[in-house]
Amino acid sequence: MMDHILSFLVFFPLVAGILGFIVNKDSIRAYGLSVAAIELFASLALWFNFDMSHSGIQFVEQASIVSAFGINYFLGVDGISLFIIIMTTFMTFIALLGLSETPRIKNLIITVLVLEMTMVGVFVALDAILFYLFWELSLVPMLYIIGAWGGPKRIYASIKFFLYTFTGSLIMLVGMIYIAHMYYTLTGQWSFSLMDWYTMTFYDLNVQFWLFMAFFVGFAIKVPMFPFHTWLPYAHGQAPTIGSVILAAVLLKMGTYGFVRFSLPLFPDASVMMMMPIAVISVIMIIYTAMVAYAQEDIKQVVAYSSVSHMGVIVLGTFALNVEGISGSIFLMLSHGIVSGALFMLVGVIYDRRHTKLMSEFGGLASVMPAYATIFGVMLMASVGLPLTIGFVGEFLSLLGFYKVSAPMTVFAGTAIIVGAIYMLSAYKKAFFGPVTNPENAHLSDLNGTEKWALIPLVLVVAWLGVYPKPVLGPIDHSVKALVQFMHDNAVTEKAKAIIPAPLADANKGEDN
Amino acid sequence: MSNTTLLLLTLLLPFGTTIVLLGVRALPWSHENATRILSIASPIIVALSMVTLFVRYDSPYTMELFSWIALGELFINVELYIDALSLVMGLFITLISALIFIYATAYMRHDAGYTRFFIYFHLFLGFMLLLVLANNPYMMFVGWEGVGLASYLLIGFYSRDLANTRAANKAFYLNRIGDFGFIIALGLIFVQLGTYGLDWSALEQSMSELDDPMLIAIGLGLFVGAMGKSAQIPLYVWLPDAMAGPTPVSALIHAATMVTAGVYMVVRFDFLYTLIPDVGLFIATMGALSALLAALFATFATDVKKILAYSTMSQLGFMFAAAGTGLYDGAIFHLFTHAFFKALLFLGAGAIIVALHHEQNIFRMGNMRHFMPIVFVSMFFATATISGIPPFSGFFSKDAIVAHLFLGHYYGLWAILMSSAFLTSYYMFRLFFTLFLAPSPTPRQTILPVSLTMQWPLILLALGAVGNGLWNIPTFMGGNAAMHTFLALSTPVHEVAHTTEWLLSMGSALVALLGMALAYRHYAHAMRPPKEARWRWLIDVLYIDHLYHALFVRSLRALSLWFATYPERLLQRSVYTLQALYWQGAHLLQRLQDGRLQTYMFLFAIGVALLSLMLLAQLKGWL
Questions:
Q1: Chain A interface mutation, best of B12, B21, B64, B71, highest count of A Cβ atoms under 10 Å
Q2: Residue B76's beta-bridge partner residues?
Q3: ipTM
Q4: Label partner for A250 (CA 20 to 30 A): which of A4, A122, B80, B306?
Q5: Nearest chain A Cα distance for residue B186, angstroms
Q6: Which of B69, B160, B176 shows the shortest C-beta gap to A417?
Q7: CB–CB of B428/B385 below 8 Å?
Q8: Interchain CB distance below 8 Å, A429 and B142
Q9: Under an 8 A CB cutoff, do B172 and A425 touch?
Q10: Distance, CA of A256 to CA of A327 (rounded, Å)
């Protein structure tokens, strides 16, 4: 079983999704949940069978697809992707658990299962074409979810979402083909395998730079980085709750994961070259979107913009190019997935009851829906990065990592700590505190059974990984150390070697002494 | 039980009780009694184990619990540290908290949010203990933020009134600004000293390796944090508003937890601040100015809790003046005595407020000595103590600071603090005489009886407030300065004659008595609220709140609206424009496909012609 666990993880949701067409409409919810649960347990099994002492890829599966062009079916997992996969299956399960949409529910659940397959596929693929395939495929179910179950402007939103991200990834594809061709000229063989690519060094810095940029465009739009971010709040504004949850929790992480998997190890010199420009963009993005979040009247837009702001911290941490920053940003991907996913679910809860997301329509909800207010409060505190919640660890580490690079820049980025608290708490105040002014709110029902079942596990994870992040940080640290060491060794210029630390060499030196 | 078990118990019991209470709250039946028992027992056990640790103490020790973050070069352990300083802090925090908890069980009686209140209360205590017992600045930061969270929850406890939520948010924001300074310092410490280890003893060793600018940056960053938590200029504005919470919350914030954190932090980093005396002087100056400004505000305030809030800020200013000029144990001694009398003042005020149906304006009280004799007596001791009337404890602790400033040649600071001390005595006795002696302006409505549970803590605190100065009577007065010896912090020694010391002490005492006498003349016989027209600017605390509002709140709001309106719209529109261009182009191309055979043939002919030309050009070598 463990030999083909990754194939199982990728294709089980697809097969189950297709089989879902023959399931009775009344039992489709239970069916979807069981499939997502099996998938979740399978990904947990991955964790338990994961060799913690080993920093490289594990559970490798390899088969040739188009041997003439070196396109392989090549799957594998390391400490970096392991927890993102678990987060994906976990959040899919939770999102299905909290699903409240009823029209055409069968189609929706099947779509979500297919989407899950593409998401897991992106994170386990180690062949560039395979990666690209899953990456692009993931657009289709999401397009359908927004376009079919979204708000009044859903068609426009879904097309914007699709075209925007599609344009970016096409440029990435050109970059991939170029690299494969380079590999061909070097070795006489085509290859899209990432492991083969890692063995190449791009001595021509110009080439390295443009390849970096080709990938960067694809990833940056997905993240989404400033100024390409406008598709996201718009898509969130129109998407149904489950769409927003998965979009924020998982789809955005594909972009930042791409940075770690492709950009950093393949182009260490270009990464160093672009470190500061990207950091500047990230800092602008962090502060700018935090400010825009403060001006929003719609609570879902507040959450959407705050989610973009935190993605900026992830990018900043990644481009610190040291162990603390990269590990921190990977941890922050997980915590962002859980916290922003939870916040979108919470917004969905109130939207289901009132069919509005305007904060001015609410007020005093804390006295009407105490359990809801409590969970919202916990997630809010996690979002503003309070210690002992999951939000603190990743944010703190990402910023700390960049602190090593440039203290002034990090201090700028850190002002978002203050602005973040301001927009979140003022939104919380508007919606939850004060007297109940709107009579429509006076008799809202508190969280029901399913909603509690969906939200409480999230609260537990937020507390657990906030207090004791070590089980997750350990494997991440291990793989990231190897990654940074690889970047150091693979860098062409002395300048890049000087900036990228060599964590493993240091450790060995320490042992020798 | 071994020390480590006790230590663990001290730290975990408040958190454990929080979790148990969360469970209790979920029970379907009334949980007030269960909550009461837990909320009395748990803090008492915590206090007793802290006392035991204190008694058994002979040398510093650590206790490692688990590794929190181990990543790259960063290793943060959850580790506790016991030394004289953390013991003294822990001692008064737990003792006073226990009394406030007991008082609160009666004060909050029949409140709909009874259990919720105590959940937050236990959380508060737990985080405060974590802050004090942490063995590295990072765990301290965890406690620090936790305290901020608990205070946010408690200040905004009655959330139906938006004013309370506003006060809670304000406290959280200003503390976040302070935390921002703290976290900058944490980052610098890690980047500069991370490889040497991050616990207190390692930092103490490695700190001196840094050069001055870096030390100053770290020192200032930490102090910004302290300014936020300990309500110093310019981050103090949350403290007067924080009285929006129930009165026991104020007592807890002002006496045992929260505001003491900043002072503790500066003293904990004494090894840093002794290296940078300039920053120390800056701290002392901010402290002295805060002391004076707050005393002025208190003199014109009419709300009993506001007066006490400003008095806290003022007293904290004294402590920073001491710590900034190197008198670390003086700061801690004053913190210690202050905790007792400030808790007593708030609890006494709370009793009166409850008895008078939540009246808080002191000029509508009056004549209370007849109705509440125990409160009257205990409040007298508290007032005399904070005013620095000998021989109560406040006199010793305050005099030590003021005399030190004079002997250390900080005459400016000394003058500011002497004036503040005078004002303190004046406004505190103004409060006292107006409350208890002055005739009541209106016929007294029914006075609610004060329960015994609320009176016992008052009596115990009064005993403590009066007597705890005995622990540290200076040697020139024939005492043995036991706390000074126990803390063993580095302290400047002033070689002066005993007469000088006596003269200085008499000066302090005189100033205090003068303030008291003046207050008696003005306020003991009639209600004399401040004249609105003349003192408006001071009653409105120099319009600083308005200024901050205009400067920061409104500008931030305006800026964010601007961002959301212009650049964000522009970005969105540029996408629309691209899209529109695309559509336009598509429409143009669409015209070519008009379905008429003639057009297609025409285009086809042009195409063939062009291709032929190109072929011809190739063959003839024209290109």
A1: B71
A2: B69
A3: 0.90
A4: A4
A5: 9
A6: B176
A7: no
A8: no
A9: yes
A10: 12
**Structure tokens belonging to residue A345:** 């679910």
0.95 cut: is pTM over it?
Answer: no
In chain B, residues 508-537 whose CB comes closer than 8 Å to chain A: none
Inter-chain contact A295–B162, Cβ cutoff 8 Å? no
Of A68, A74, A54, A65, residue with least CA distance to A10? A74
pLDDT at B356: 84
Gap from B112 CA to chain A (nearest CA, Å): 11
Give the closest residue to A473 by CA, choosing from A18, A22, A82, A3: A82
- Of A82, A18, A81, A3, the residue nearest A48 (C-alpha): A82
Residue A283 lies in a domain: no
Is A403's CB within 8 Å of B74's CB? no
Cβ contacts (< 8 Å) between A429 and chain B: which residues? Answer: 162, 165-166, 169
Residue A311 lies in a domain: yes
Q: Mind giving me the DSSP string for B198-257? A: -SHHHHHHHGGGS-HHHHHHHHHHHHHHHHHHTT-TTSTTHHHHGGGS-HHHHHIIIIIS
In chain A, the number of structural domains is 1
Query: What per-residue confidence (pLDDT) applies to B363?
Result: 84
Residue A362, domain member (yes or no): yes
Whether B179 and chain A come into contact, CB under 8 Å, resolves to: yes
Distance CA B421, CA B429 (A): 12
Helix (H) / strand (E) element for B78: namely strand B74-82
Contact flag B161-A434 (C-beta cutoff 8 Å): yes
Q: Name the CA dihedral angle for B256, B262, B265, B267, rounded to a multiple of 10 degrees.
A: -90
CB–CB of B66 and A468 under 8 A? yes
CA nearest A475 in B: which residue? B71
Determine whether the interchain pair A417/B180 forms a contact, defined as Cβ–Cβ distance below 8 Å.
Answer: yes
Q: What is the pLDDT of residue A357?
A: 86
Q: What is the pLDDT of residue B345?
A: 92
pLDDT of residue A513: 35
Contact B69 A397 (CB under 8 A): yes
B74 contacts on A by Cβ (under 8 Å): 324, 397, 400
Model pLDDT, residue A440: 85
Ranges of chain B whose pLDDT falls below 50: none
Cβ pair B190:A403 closer than 8 A: yes
pLDDT by residue (tens digit) across B334-372? 999 999 999 999 999 988 888 888 888 888 887 788 888
Looking at residue B46, its pLDDT comes to: 94
- Residue B559 contacts A where some CB pair is shorter than 8 Å: yes
Put simply, the answer to whether A291 touches B572 (Cβ < 8 Å) is no
A13 upstream amide cis, omega within 30 of 0: no
Cα–Cα dist A286/A264, whole Å: 21
Residue B367 burial (CB < 10 Å; 0-12/13-18/19+)? middle
- Write out the residue range of the structural domain in which residue A310 sits: 291-467
Is residue B181 helix, strand or coil? helix
- Among all residues of chain B, which has the CA nearest to that of A324? B72
Q: Tokens for B69?
A: 């973050």
Per-residue pLDDT at B443: 67
CA max distance for chain B: 122
Choose among A171, A150, A335: nearest CA to A242: A150
Q: How many beta-carbon contacts under 8 Å exist across A and B? A: 143
d(CA A167, CA A170): 5
Nearest to A295 among B72, B142, B561 (CB): B561
Tokens of B476: 């020139």
Q: Is residue A366 part of a domain?
A: yes
Tokens 């190197």 correspond to B326
Averaged in consecutive runs of 10 residues, what is the pLDDT profile of chain A (513 residues)? 85 92 88 94 92 86 85 90 94 91 86 94 93 92 88 83 83 91 88 88 88 92 86 88 92 93 92 92 92 91 93 94 93 94 93 87 87 93 92 91 90 87 91 87 86 92 93 91 90 87 65 38
